Automatic annotation (TrEMBL), chain A:
Protein's name in the database: Sugar ABC transporter permease
Organism: Kribbella turkmenica
NAD among keywords: no
Record keywords, A-Z: Cell membrane, Membrane, Transmembrane, Transmembrane helix, Transport
Primary localisation category: membrane
Sequence intervals crossing the membrane: 33-53, 91-113, 125-145, 165-196, 217-239, 280-298
PANTHER family: ABC TRANSPORTER PERMEASE PROTEIN (PTHR30193), DIACETYLCHITOBIOSE UPTAKE SYSTEM PERMEASE PROTEIN NGCF (PTHR30193:SF41)
GO CC terms, sorted: plasma membrane
UniProtKB/TrEMBL annotation, chain B:
Signal sequence, start to end: 1-20
Family: Belongs to the bacterial solute-binding protein 1 family.
Name listed for the protein in its UniProt record: Extracellular solute-binding protein
BP GO terms, sorted: maltodextrin transmembrane transport; maltose transport
């Protein structure tokens, strides 16, 4: 009542009031995270954009160097580099395999793990273990599984591809995509398991009374019921997939064979950090951010649309 | 809300400006004479750590007012990245006893290195200690930004048991010419003495060519660097011969296209390895090994064969305040006495003239290392040119595509890479 009276009186808030806003306590709570975001996300992103438009390289403090504005030169260099174009193409192949596979497998497995099956806890933990295990350790196992004389080729016998999976130009990126799908599945299953708790049991009963079997219930009740989670899974899988680095770095020996599994982030690392051209690396990074944003918007529009 | 955001931006900008506002190394002339405590970094392998600790202890015992604090290079994807980040942050140590010659041009461009010629007798000290080899380490501006410290001349190790199993003479293996190496390799694989004859890393990192193409190229050309006088040298008859030799090794499955986790030579997966003397400590008691120089197409005599040095050097970094002390420590750590201790503790070759005669006693007691001491006199370094790492990555990409995976003619790949390398080397 008193607030209304104050507002009604037409008194303008003081400088402190204007700085702290209508809810000073809320501002105080939010500020640390805003500062954190600004320092570790907004500032580096802005700086990366700045670097991408300049002839920029890292120097020792106090070193006097010219860093002239070069317009779109770095972008022209990046886009005319076949290795960079190939890396963007590779990551598209990766996303086309990884994202749908992640959605289908995680929703299917989450539904199975949500029902009353034996060893449920064991399976839940089993799917989660790869996610929490360091990539460096798991990559060794996959190298053992997928090398020319590995377990997979032994099982396949004469059907084994030649050259083998990780040194095959056609199969290297799909193998990396399957590896990443498997490794991250536990996390996405967890998201779906949480979403499944919000799907009303009444809907399943109603579907059952209408004669729907398990498959139809899954399609008509479960899938629409977890749509918000699907939107989240698609977006997260796209963003993490587009940032692919560790797997081509370790699993295929630096994006091999012959760049067939190189990702934009790997090329960004090679050019920006190893070769000392952060301006070129930043241009790749900015293009990647723009690409991922466009992709995420498209996904949000098609997957996350309201009925 | 706009006011709040504006204030936040000002606060952030202010704090960032405060962080980045230091004046760095300060007055270089004053720093060159300044003495006092300094920090040094060394490599993290146990042998070099042992040497580093005793060196620092010996210095500190005699120089209480100029204490040296030493530590291993912090962990990162590579030492070079850590050093590059330290230069940018302004917290690099005074000396790093593990500076890769391939990174020197980049560190120099960053303003991160101190030219050693600026110290009294700097050039003479470097050239007297290392002899003619030192000139390979000069930068394009004619200055020394690194002191050539130690090399690991790359040679071919072979597994005597595997050779005997294949019916080959383990004491005098036929590994002098490319044809001999190919014939020997085929016997090793067909007899199942080893799955692969040799297993150089087939991965695409820029430095991997130092252990397959480059040693053989140095031998074939009698000591040419990859780039000389600002031009790529490898698109030549010699370069094509070396590339074709390795292409045959991969095409005939005598070498593997797949990455190996572990040491293929120690595991017995490969019967040969291209490596330097640092590996002896690893192979001891695990393998009955022998060593020969890298092959040439015509089978040059051993005393004419050059190879890649796999050197690591010492550089002084511009963040150093007490450069007078740093220079004295650098000379102390590379003195004849400390080089002798380094050889004793690590088995790696100090990059100084006449290693074999200077430390004759050591080589009498450790005959395994004598071959490497002889080879150390004929080593070739990576070219000290602008864009060095980009040049090596460009070369590696072409090599990987044509030689390892056979997706392009080897000669055409070398020609294409040479054009790009010429452009890169011409940039300042």
């Amino acid at each position: 009542m008193s607030r209304l009276a104050v507002s009604g009186s037409g008194r303008r808030p003081g400088v402190v009031g204007r700085i702290l806003g209508e809810h000073p306590a809320g501002t105080a709570f939010v500020t640390p995270y805003v500062v954190f975001l600004a320092a570790v996300f907004a500032y580096p992103l802005g700086f990366a954009v700045y670097m991408s438009f300049h002839d920029y390289f890292f120097t020792a403090p106090g070193a006097i160097v010219e860093r002239p504005f070069v317009g779109f030169d770095n972008y022209v260099t990046v886009l005319s580099d076949p290795a960079v174009r190939r890396a963007f193409g590779n990551v598209l192949v990766f996303l086309v395999i990884n994202v749908p596979l992640t959605v289908v497998l995680s929703i299917g497995l989450a539904t199975a793990l949500n029902s009353a099956i034996r060893w449920r806890t064991f399976f839940r933990v089993s799917y989660y273990v790869p996610y929490v295990t360091a990539s460096v350790a798991v990559v060794g196992v996959w190298l053992f599984l997928f090398n020319a004389n590995g377990l997979v080729n032994s099982v396949l016998g004469p059907l084994a591809p030649d050259p083998s999976w990780l040194v095959n130009s056609t199969l290297a990126m799909p193998t990396v995509a399957i590896y990443v799908t498997w490794k991250q599945l536990g996390f996405f299953i967890l998201l779906y398991l949480a979403a499944l708790q919000n799907v009303s049991k009444d809907l399943y009963e109603a579907a059952s009374m209408d004669g729907a079997g398990r498959w139809k219930s899954f399609l008509n009740v479960t899938v629409p019921g977890v749509r918000p989670a699907t939107t989240l899974v698609v977006l997260l899988a796209t963003v993490t997939g587009a940032n692919l680095f560790t797997e081509p770095y370790l699993l295929t020996g630096g994006g091999g064979p012959d760049g067939a599994s190189a990702s934009p982030v790997l090329v960004m690392y090679q050019k920006g950090i190893e070769q000392g051209n952060p301006d070129i690396g930043s241009a790749i990074g900015v293009l990647l951010v723009v690409g991922v944003l466009m992709l995420a918007l498209a996904e949000r529009r098609f997957v996350g649309r309201e009925d | 809300m706009k006011l709040q955001a504006g204030l936040l931006a000002v606060v952030l900008a202010g704090s960032l400006a405060a962080c980045g506002g230091s004046d760095g190394a300060g007055d270089a002339d004053a720093a060159a004479k300044a003495t006092g405590p300094i920090t040094v970094w060394y490599s993290n392998n146990p042998e070099e750590v042992a040497w580093g600790k005793q060196m620092v202890a010996a210095w500190n015992a005699a120089h209480a007012d100029q204490k040296v604090t030493a530590q291993e290079i912090p962990t990162g994807k590579s030492s070079e990245e850590v050093i590059g980040a330290a230069i940018t942050a302004g917290n690099a140590p005074c000396l790093i006893f593990n500076t890769s010659p391939a990174s020197v041009s980049q560190f120099q461009k960053q303003g991160g290195l101190v030219p050693l010629d600026g110290f009294d007798g700097g050039t003479a000290y470097i050239e007297d200690r290392s002899g003619d080899v030192a000139k390979q380490y000069k930068s394009t501006d004619g200055k020394y930004y690194q002191l050539p410290w130690k090399s690991n001349p790359v040679m071919i190790f072979y597994n005597k048991k595997a050779f005997a199993k294949a019916g080959l003479d383990p004491e005098k293996p036929a590994l002098g010419t490319y044809d001999e190496v190919l014939a020997t390799s085929r016997k090793l694989v067909s007899s199942k003495a080893a799955k692969f004859a040799i297993y150089p890393a087939p991965s695409n990192e820029f430095f991997q060519s130092w252990f397959d193409f480059y040693p053989l190229y140095a031998a074939e050309t009698g000591g040419k660097q990859l780039v000389e006088d600002g031009k790529a040298t490898f698109a030549s008859d010699e370069g094509r011969k070396v590339a074709q030799f390795w292409r045959t090794m991969y095409a005939d499955k005598l070498a593997s296209q797949e990455k190996y986790t572990g040491d293929a030579f120690v595991d017995g997966t490969a019967a040969m390895a291209v490596v330097g003397p640092w590996a002896i400590a690893t192979y001891e008691r695990k393998i009955d090994w022998g060593v020969v120089p890298v092959p040439t197409s015509s089978g040059k005599p051993a005393n004419e064969i050059h190879t890649f040095s796999d050197a690591k050097n010492v550089a002084m970094y511009s963040a150093c305040k007490n450069r007078g002390t740093a220079w004295e420590v650098l000379k102390f750590a590379t003195s004849q006495e400390q080089d002798g201790k380094f050889l004793e503790l690590t088995g790696q070759m100090p990059l100084r003239q006449d290693v074999a005669t200077t430390y004759a006693d050591y080589f009498t007691k450790n005959a395994d290392y004598k071959t490497f001491a002889d080879q150390a006199a004929r080593t070739v370094e990576v070219p000290n040119v602008p864009n060095s790492i980009t040049i090596w990555q460009t070369f590696r990409d072409a090599y990987s595509k044509s030689v390892i995976f056979g997706q392009e003619d080897t000669g055409a790949a070398l020609d294409g890479a040479a054009q790009k390398v010429d452009q890169l080397a011409a940039q300042s």
